[in-house]
Design a protein that fits this description.
Blueprint: H1 8-14, H2 24-32, H3 38-42, H4 45-63, H5 65-71, H6 84-128, H7 134-149, H8 158-175, H9 184-207, H10 213-239, H11 243-267, H12 271-287
């Protein structure tokens, strides 16, 4: 198989497809704060989010191909399994498809969010990744993804969008040390972001007068599980901020986002959906052994 004809497995690796298990929870957690069943209200919007996410992953590897040739030569572009032109074309096609689906599902209101979202994804991959603004740009993409689920009234999902943004900023900052390790300050900042995201979920849940006790406890329990998984891995990286520990903490942050998403769903009474989203994170831990999410 030459690089001009990549295998399906190579394309799966290019877009880190298992990591897309963390994406539908963005849209559903946003939709839940509109007051309706998030699965029904969101419709096919999670598909659009997955397409945009995978587009960003492919564009990321295209932009990083020179660095990866030195640091990660096993990746599909530097190893020659996927041609750079193929990766770029695939990224563009996925991005266009994602925007198209948002327009079909949510109309102009959704496009007002998905077009800036796609632009931010490209900005991060091509311009901002290594700049001081890189974590903020990446974090903004996930925050917008939550708002996409509440495109009819984005303000309703401001709290889960902010929590997701804070979480993603921490994980993105941490991910910069996946290869060579990180400084204690960066890992500590990621740990603080995890605590802030969990605190926002808990305080919002406790202040919601309409929340049922069962839902409050479910949300708080999921917040605790989120801190244990993500914060625990980050705390270990604070003690030993070398490449392997930072990489493990980054992977925990990617998969552990589903627990935060699940908490926001549970807070709105969507416990079955919350459990499904949390389960997606557990599934990611299994499939990550075959395809790395980082």
């Amino acid at each position: 198989m030459n690089a001009s004809q990549p295998s399906a497995r190579d394309l799966v690796r290019l877009v880190r497809l298992p990591a897309s298990l963390t994406v539908p929870g963005d849209v559903w957690s946003g939709a839940a704060w509109l007051g309706d069943d998030p699965l029904r209200r969101a419709g096919a919007m999670p598909l659009a989010s997955v397409l945009l996410y995978c587009s960003g992953m492919a564009l990321n590897d295209w932009a990083d191909r020179a660095v990866d040739a030195v640091e990660r030569p096993e990746r599909v572009i530097p190893s020659g399994r996927v041609a750079p032109s193929t990766a770029l074309g695939f990224a563009a096609a996925l991005g266009a498809a994602g925007i198209g689906v948002t327009g079909a599902v949510g109309g102009r209101r959704a496009l007002r969010l998905s077009v800036p979202l796609a632009a931010l994804v490209a900005t991060y991959d091509l311009l901002a990744k290594d700049s001081p603004l890189g974590p903020l740009v990446m974090a903004s993409t996930r925050g917008l993804d939550v708002l996409l689920g509440a495109a009819a009234a984005p303000g309703a999902a401001a709290a889960p969008a902010l929590a997701t943004t804070v979480h993603t900023a921490g994980v993105t900052l941490l991910s910069r040390g996946e290869v060579h390790g990180s400084g204690p300050a960066s890992v500590g900042a990621a740990l603080a972001a995890t605590g802030a995201a969990a605190a926002l979920l808990v305080t919002t849940t406790l202040s919601d007068a309409d929340a049922r006790p069962r839902d409050r406890w479910a949300a708080i329990g999921l917040a605790a599980a989120y801190v244990a998984r993500v914060g625990g891995a980050q705390a270990r990286a604070v003690a030993t901020p070398d490449g392997p520990r930072v990489r493990a903490a980054t992977a925990a942050g990617i998969g552990g986002l589903t627990l935060l998403q699940a908490g926001w769903l549970a807070a709105r009474g969507q416990v079955p959906t919350a459990l499904a989203v949390a389960g997606a994170g557990q599934l990611l831990r299994r499939v990550a052994r075959a395809v790395s999410p980082t």
